[in-house]
Design goal:
Protein name: Heterodisulfide reductase subunit C/quinone-modifying oxidoreductase subunit QmoC
Organism: Caldithrix abyssi DSM 13497
CATH superfamily of the largest domain: Alpha-helical ferredoxin
InterPro entries: 4Fe4S_Fe-S-bd (IPR017896), 4Fe4S_Fe_S_CS (IPR017900), HdrC_iron-sulfur_subunit (IPR051460), Helical_ferredxn (IPR009051)
GO cellular component, one term: plasma membrane
Number of domains: 2
Helix content: 55-70%
Number of strands: 0
Number of helices: 11
Shape: globular
GO molecular function: iron-sulfur cluster binding; metal ion binding
Largest sheet: none
Bound molecules: iron/sulfur cluster
Radius of gyration: 20 Å
């Protein structure tokens, strides 16, 4: 039986990550977190997260870079801002979640186990870049091929209902002037 080591040593922490955190929007106040847990208790999706928002703030500030960037939490955050408006220390938790997600994308880090949300986000953006908009049925197919066809089979009844209701077109959707969209996206990314 494999025994997983739970202990972390100080020399495994990443001080560069802590310094970087203080430079992202909202990150400059994370050091003031008093670990009250308001954010975790009010977060509607914290029960599905592997690291609660309160714990994530402490881990990010301490330099647990790998654990933070590989967590499901940053991808599950629904950007509802409930934590941010209720934090007694005025810490911009939602903005920090975005910053962490951006860093994970830049470093091409994903959660250790296969997880649909980052793959969905990337496929969505690629499709918008190419066609100016997405075609839901193609997006679902791309996702299924990347995360496993079993998921597609599980989603089949839902897909069928959506198709019957006219909400899931098989026809490829695209805008008329794709070049304009490409130019706009290039300007945003620059
Ligand atoms: S609500 Fe604010 S102060 Fe309290 S644990 Fe969350 S981030 Fe820290
Ligand atoms: S913004 Fe994200 S972390 Fe904050 S309460 Fe909403 S879902 Fe939870």
């Amino acid at each position: 039986m494999q025994i997983l080591r739970k202990v972390k040593y100080e020399n495994e922490l990443n001080p560069e990550f802590t310094s970087w955190l203080s430079t992202i929007p909202g990150g400059e106040r994370v050091r003031e977190c008093m670990q009250c847990g308001t954010c975790s208790s009010i977060c509607p999706v914290s029960i599905y997260m592997d690291i609660t928002p309160r714990r994530l703030m402490a881990m990010a500030d301490s330099g647990f870079k790998d654990d933070v960037l590989q967590s499901f939490t940053i991808w599950l955050c629904a950007s509802c801002y409930a934590c941010t408006v209720n934090c007694p220390k005025d810490i911009k938790i939602t903005d920090i979640m975005y910053g962490l997600k951006r860093r994970a994308i830049e470093e091409k880090v994903l959660p250790r186990r296969r997880f649909a949300i980052p793959i969905l986000a990337r496929s969505f953006v690629n499709m918008v870049k190419k066609n100016g908009r997405i075609t839901e049925s193609r997006l679902v197919m791309t996702l299924a091929l990347k995360i496993g066809l079993l998921h597609l089979l599980r989603m089949a009844p839902l897909g069928w209902s959506l198709m019957r209701a006219g909400r899931l077109s098989l026809k490829k959707e695209q805008v008329q002037n794709k070049e304009q969209i490409k130019t706009m996206l290039k300007a945003v990314e620059a």
